[in-house]
């Protein structure tokens, strides 16, 4: 079943709710006991976190604040997210860059040391295996973070290709940072609050940049990035220091930065027009269709040399048959799988994510439509429970992004 | 049904948390464990209420249900003049979190639909038993009311549902 973030959390329950009652308790218990916990699990629970299963982890969908308040507060003040379920890894060795370039569309060689970018791991057909933020720490060290739900297949994919690469004499190895936790601090107070906890000058660290530094007394990997459209950071911290860091951040913000769960995270990324892998991008979706053409380096477009390059380069030349676009719509919020029709009532695509925007106070959605129907302003019909509602193709992000860039 | 599932899912999430004593901070547990249940109403296990007065029965969703759903942003309701059947879906509530079906606790003809909910769906959260009513029904089989839960039974049901999962 595909669904929004919170729906994923529900899917186990939904299945079990259909089984007989006695079995439910037993099976649910065993399912729960197999879930992994981050080092902040007790902290979440103590703060009223409603824990749900997500990608094999027990994660907070929300805390005491409603999803609406939580989303708005992140943009007005700030939000702190535990994203330790995501998988951080390093590629090391003098051939790390040429190796990674066989698997992703980014111009990794062209990145300045200490900078990063969003990229896509592709398969032989040009489809997306996962999206990932990669950082070139140095010429022989790449740091990347992949989705929790894709961890196993991503690692298997990288390992398989690494074996072949090394067999030909390539120098690359990996290190999985399972001894670290990952916190995301997002919103206008992110920088001022974090500045209290480090001696490094954060005003010199711009969007997409990376630094290894001491925060609250612990050696951290800091990336100025996020998944909300706001300025902010992702902080990879040794797990034994994660709880102290989370507490320090909340304390330094004087209560304005709030713990924020997966529910608000989904609203925030949707408002920012960012893809959720598994919803808005899948094995069969190419980066061109997903609107991530900008992430395909210029040199990579000329040279290819990544999996599925033939398909992707052909799409770049001829244009993709379908494209990811945003929508505003009337009536009930569109949800993933809602059908999209043109004004004549002909099917032109499907919604992949949608909901009520807490910041704009109206329905927003993203989905794929046939090329030709993708221009902003194109009127469409979105079908919810058999009824057609008016929608219009809209540029994304829905809420302007506030990334910290040099002026 | 869907509404019930969502409630149980939240309950599941809550059960996970209930092992911690610190979790039971007043502001949260009050809104959850002690949702208002009114005397004089009948309740369905799918978390709708019905108030039978004279020849008309008014239907809405309970305080417990709205609390689990979160902010309601849209209510899909039928037209007046149509019919509803006990246990069958007659509409849907959209919250920031999710879409949930609303089942009718009683069968009959819809004689009135709350016109306020189109513009002010939040009435379901702020006033689930008054301003947030959904439809008025002329019951075709008032005996169906006997199959529903009373206030005490419903309160117990909610507690068990929150605890059992």
Automatic annotation (TrEMBL), chain A:
Pfam families linked: GCV_T, GCV_T_C
GCVT N-terminal domain mapped to chain residues: 40-298
Superkingdom of source: Eukaryota
Transmembrane segments: none
Aminomethyltransferase C-terminal domain ranges (all copies): 323-399
Gene3D superfamilies from the UniProt entry: Aminomethyltransferase beta-barrel domains (2.40.30.110), Aminomethyltransferase fragment (4.10.1250.10), Probable tRNA modification gtpase trme, domain 1 (3.30.1360.120)
Keywords: Aminotransferase, Mitochondrion, Transferase, Transit peptide
Catalytic activity, reaction form: N(6)-[(R)-S(8)-aminomethyldihydrolipoyl]-L-lysyl-[protein] + (6S)-5,6,7,8-tetrahydrofolate = N(6)-[(R)-dihydrolipoyl]-L-lysyl-[protein] + (6R)-5,10-methylene-5,6,7,8-tetrahydrofolate + NH4(+)
Annotated InterPro entries: GcvT, GcvT/YgfZ/DmdA, GcvT/YgfZ_C, GcvT_C, GCVT_N, TrmE/GcvT-like
UniProt EC number: 2.1.2.10
Location relative to the cell: Mitochondrion
Family (UniProt): Belongs to the GcvT family.
Quaternary organization: The glycine cleavage system is composed of four proteins: P, T, L and H.
Cited function: The glycine cleavage system catalyzes the degradation of glycine.
Identification of the protein by name: Aminomethyltransferase
Organism: Citrullus colocynthis
Automatic annotation (TrEMBL), chain B:
Compartment annotation: Mitochondrion
Keywords per UniProt: Lipoyl, Mitochondrion, Transit peptide
Matching Pfam families: GCV_H
Required cofactor names: (R)-lipoate
Cofactor note: Binds 1 lipoyl cofactor covalently.
Residues of the Lipoyl-binding domain: 56-138
PROSITE patterns reported for this sequence: BIOTINYL_LIPOYL, LIPOYL
Gene3D superfamilies hit by this protein: 2.40.50.100
Cited PANTHER family: GLYCINE CLEAVAGE SYSTEM H PROTEIN (PTHR11715), GLYCINE CLEAVAGE SYSTEM H PROTEIN 1, MITOCHONDRIAL-RELATED (PTHR11715:SF27)
HAMAP family: GcvH
Assigned protein family: Belongs to the GcvH family.
Subunit comment: The glycine cleavage system is composed of four proteins: P, T, L and H.
UniProt function note: The H protein shuttles the methylamine group of glycine from the P protein to the T protein.
Protein name: Glycine cleavage system H protein
